[in-house]
Write a structure and sequence with these properties.
By secondary structure, this protein is of the alpha+beta class. The chain is built from three helices and seven strands. It folds into two domains: 32 residues; 101 residues, Immunoglobulin-like (Sandwich). The strands form two sheets. It has a four-stranded antiparallel β-sheet with strand order 1-2-7-6, with no helix packed on it. The protein has a three-stranded antiparallel β-sheet with strand order 3-4-5, with no helix packed on it.
Length: 166
């Protein structure tokens, strides 16, 4: 079975850039190893999807306490800020490899005007922050009933001529 994958050249460039940045950080920060582990920033992965009732964001933030996550909504801009702190009980000098990113992050999203900012909710479970952004009632799609034969009745009335009330 052949699997088709979408070619995204910029994803490869971003991965290469991340690897080069990590290489330079590691080579220039040998003396301050603890500093290089704790003073970085990163951007957690986010899924955004929409249905007829909500726009939903799922942000991967494992290992971050809910008290270290700040969600703010102001002028149709949603800002999520947080920090993953390195566990001080473990001795950093014993690490052979550090791939998890530590430090703070900020993600900002411009929301559509259809979102009802008064009813936004956030839930943090199993390392995933889920933010539900309900749509305003007037923005939700409306089902329009299709009547059969109504137009035919109106044409029949027009054919009879003007009514006496007119």
């Amino acid at each position: 079975m052949t699997v088709l994958t979408r070619f995204e050249p910029f994803r490869e460039v971003a991965t290469l850039q991340d690897r080069m940045n990590r290489l330079f950080r590691e080579s220039f920060n040998q003396a301050g190893q603890e500093e290089s582990l704790t003073n970085t920033s990163f951007a957690p992965a986010v899924d955004v999807y929409e249905d007829e009732h909500n726009v939903t964001l799922k942000i991967e933030v494992p290992g971050i306490d809910e008290k270290d996550i700040d969600v703010r909504l102001e002028n149709n801009t949603l800002t999520v800020h947080g920090e993953r702190k390195i566990e001080k009980e473990e001795k950093e000098e014993n690490y052979r490899r550090v791939e998890r990113q530590y430090g703070s992050f900020t993600r900002t999203f411009t929301l559509p005007t259809t979102v009802d900012s008064e009813k936004v909710s956030a839930n943090y479970d199993k390392g995933v922050l889920k933010i539900a952004l309900p749509k305003k009632a007037e923005a939700k799609p409306k089902q329009i009933k299709v009547n059969i034969g109504v137009e035919k009745t109106e044409k029949t009335l027009d054919a009879k001529g003007p009514s006496k009330a007119a």
